[in-house]
Write a structure and sequence with these properties.
With about 120 residues, the protein is mostly helical. It has four helices and no strands. The chain has a single domain (about 10-120), classed as Methane Monooxygenase Hydroxylase, Chain G, domain 1 (Up-down Bundle), CATH 1.20.58. Helix 2 packs antiparallel against helix 3 and helix 2 runs parallel beside helix 4.
């Protein structure tokens, strides 16, 4: 590495408000950008921020849906876990992170599993 070359983090999170040019960071990471104008460079920065935010929300949705499914399979389904999973799916759909139909389908599958479990438990 060159002596005057600054060290950049592995993720662009700390570059959101920093004075470092994000396109320089991308070039160091091996991503070549064709952005020449200020607006194109800004679009690259905002897309990177949105990508990180979307990854966070998608991961949260997956985790909570998985926990809800596990609680349904267990002997006593946890209503709070199911409610939280549905709420998170609605929020992600509202923010445009997942498609509203995707959220509706996932909620439908969760409720279908819950109702099937309840029928088996009552029988």
């Amino acid at each position: 590495m060159l002596v005057n070359q600054p060290q950049f983090p592995a993720t662009p999170v700390s570059l959101v408000c920093g004075s470092v040019d994000f396109t320089d960071w991308l070039i160091i990471q091996g991503v070549v950008t064709l952005a020449n104008t200020r607006s194109a460079k800004k679009r690259i920065r905002t897309n990177a921020r949105k990508k990180l935010r979307n990854q966070m929300y998608r991961s949260r949705v997956k985790t909570l849906v998985k926990k809800a499914e596990q609680s349904i399979v267990s002997d006593i389904p946890d209503e709070e876990a199911i409610r939280q999973a549905i709420r998170t799916l609605d929020k992600a759909a509202g923010k445009g992170i997942i498609h509203p139909n995707n959220a509706a389908r996932r909620k439908s599958h969760l409720m279908k599993k819950l109702n099937a479990h309840r029928q088996v438990a009552n029988a």
